[in-house]
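I hope you will forgive my troubling you with a question about protein structure. I am sending you one protein, given as its amino acid sequence and as whole-number tokens for its backbone shapes. Thank you for your consideration; the sequence and its tokens are set out here:
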Amino acid sequence: MSLKLKSGFEFDYGNLYGEGKVTDADLKSYETDLKKAHEAMKVMREKGFIRGHLSKDGEPEKVLFSQTPYVEEGNINSPASLARLKKLQDHVKADVDVVVSLGIGGSYLGNKVLFDVQCGAFWNTLPKEERKGFPRVYFSGNNIDPRATGDLIQHIKALSKISCSHEKKKLRVLLLLISKSGGTLDTMSGFMVLYDALKKFENVEVEVVAVTDPGEEKPTLLKKLAMEKGWEQFAVPDGVGGRFTVFTEVGLTLGACIGFDIQAFLDGAKDMDKACQNDDIWQNPAMLNAALKFAASERHGRDIEVMMPYGDYLKSVSEWYIQLLAESLGKQFNKEGKEVCYGRTPCVAVGTTDMHSQTQAHQQGKLNKVVQFIRIKDWEDDLVIPNAFPEAKKLADIAGVTMSEALEVARQSNADALASNKRYNACFTLPTLNAYHLGELLYMLAMSIAYEGELADVDAFDQPGVESYKRIMGPKLQALKEAKGK
């Protein structure tokens, strides 16, 4: 059983729905709630309004992520904003050797997805010609890690010496600083350490591009700093929480720095949004996915979701999804203020790697998991397993098939084994791994979370639990600083 779109995107839910799994009766019991959820999505699209949603300051706040795929005047993404991204792309390609993307949470996770899909693991080792003129890219500011930060500084220093001796020029470094407020401790501490160190290297030229709150009336810390220093600026828009911002300039600035096809990415998201406007649950991927996962959790106790893409460069998709699910749906109170402690627990896995580490628990552990696979139907670059050792029969038996064929046999075998032991699983299939289909997948997952928030009656667009540790951490840091000053 599967839902297949004209694009080739497919959601196979046969191992999640049916006798002994989520049933018709389960879905029937949510029929009224699903209709209300679908109406809520219509209102969100048309008015940017979600019942019960307030900002962290307790003020009414619009929810605008569903607007992001539509490139129109007055929208978050407009012809003018895409033209500015193209200008950034041209500048980076012509004038920058190294980009360091500094952000955490949605300002890191979504960007890492774009990088992994577009560039892969060995991008920074390739000659510039093979990178089509685009710079090396590094990530920082996603943890307060002195060793990793120090290693990056020393690496850039070494690159600058090579640039000076071999190319007779300074190394040009662009720090892509992403923070809505500029008060994000992890990102700003890493930025200040990097900025200060690199400015002291005589063979390095540093420029900063700030992606931050665009408001000028009451500028945030980073906005004010960017205006004073004359840094190029892009927007972290209002109405789009960090975990949804891969579709905005937060993600698209990094996309511009690596030659990612931004328009195709947004087109994929837009076409998925149109599919998700269908009021028939069996033709709406996001509504169907949300309903099945919600029913699996609430009716069958399967409240852990293992996101298990098959492919190394899709691991970051799983990591991005972890934040999306955990931050959106892990809520103590519902929209009426009643304590419900709702939330499904997300888990990162990668096939085939974690078939050799986690599958024992998936296959025979507690009956509390849904394993969600992602597969690529046609790989752009495939390799045939050669018969390199014909005298070794066991090795000869696997020769002659492609690596992608073997990968899919492994995934199917995992799915079948899980299903045979009452273990729920499902699969998203992308026809091929490109910007368009990536846009489809990420947007469908985001919209699915929005539907599930309505089914669970929790605000999927706030994160009050995140503010709790921040309120504790600020005074602790101040006390530490005062103690050091004595």
Summary: The mean pLDDT is 95. The longest helix spans residues 435-456. Residues 327 and 466 are 8 Å apart (CA to CA).
